Amino acid sequence: MEKRALIIGASGIVGSNLADRLLSSGWQVAGLSRGRTPVSPAIESITADLGSADSVGRALSGKSFSHVFFTAWSRQATEKENIRVNGAMVRHVMDAVGPTGTLTHAALVTGLKHYLGPFEAYATGAVPITPFREEQGRQPVDNFYYEQEDRLFEAAQRYGFGWSVHRPHTIIGYALGNAMNMGVTLAVYATLCKETGQPFVFPGSAAQWNSLTDMTDARLLARHLEWAATSATARNEDFNVVNGDVFRWKWMWSRIAGYFGIEAAPFDGELHPLEGRMQDAGQTWAGIAARFDLKEADIGRLASWWHTDADLGRPMEVLTDMTKSRQAGFLDYQSTPDAFFALFDRLKAERVIPQ
């Protein structure tokens, strides 16, 4: 069978970059979602309620795929609800696609909350020693990532396909309307500071300011997903996936400020969460969008203040080991400053932020 991919979440930060990568490599690509955000016309758009087995079954009836990529999740009020809803999404897709007999591989994108724990119990337990390694396994807490993995493993055993699990750190990439998007959030924040004269204050913790950290470019993650889906050495394995460089925010913050032509405020050692400080930013952004004829006037479709606060407010070092991927044959590298600047350049070119 030709390489025919089904991407769950093809309009998101991971799914859209993955779709671009697979299309450029000659794959046929379909995207399954609720249809609220448009996808590229090069992608076959399939609409279904992922929470309904009947809806997913009807939408995928008569269709066959060689590969499935899970790149989406649905945020719920509690982790128990996250487990119920997001585990069911994986199960519904696998029950619809697995019996066709054409599926050779399914990939699941999760993240470093595999090691840190879920948002409602974020890093409150015994966090493993950094850098995080796959062999450290699961934490003794409820975590919807574990439920998604278990549903994937169960289906793979039942239907005889291979799997891979991918754990990126914070993802840098182009996407609008995404719930977890630090790169676009920081671009909007810096633009607001430039246009209003507000200080460009680091919102996070002293631990994040001073400690080593890393990030994941969505384009590198897309290459990692394609590699694992087509490599025998990656079959039935879990992998961390980050850019390959490390930095400290005390160094990176001034470089982001410099890109936007603003000064980075001195760090005072205190938390200054964006979510509380940006309550009135929507009206200001709408004015900026009108003045510069920007694509999106709704700041809620661009900035995810809560997620950026969660990442930058962590009270410990978060650093990832890539040895397992390297030993299996994935050697790609991406400079994190260059990833930020490439994203900012594209946001300007697409008229998401001012030139």
UniProtKB/TrEMBL annotation:
* SUPFAM superfamilies in alphabetical order: NAD(P)-binding Rossmann-fold domains
Q: Which Pfam families match?
A: PRISE (PF22917)
Q: Which residues form the signal peptide?
A: none
According to the entry, every stretch annotated as the PRISE-like Rossmann-fold domain falls at 66-354
InterPro entries noted in UniProt: NAD(P)-bd_dom_sf (IPR036291), PRISE-like_Rossmann-fold (IPR055222)
What is the protein's name according to its record? PRISE-like Rossmann-fold domain-containing protein
Please give the organism: Paraburkholderia fynbosensis
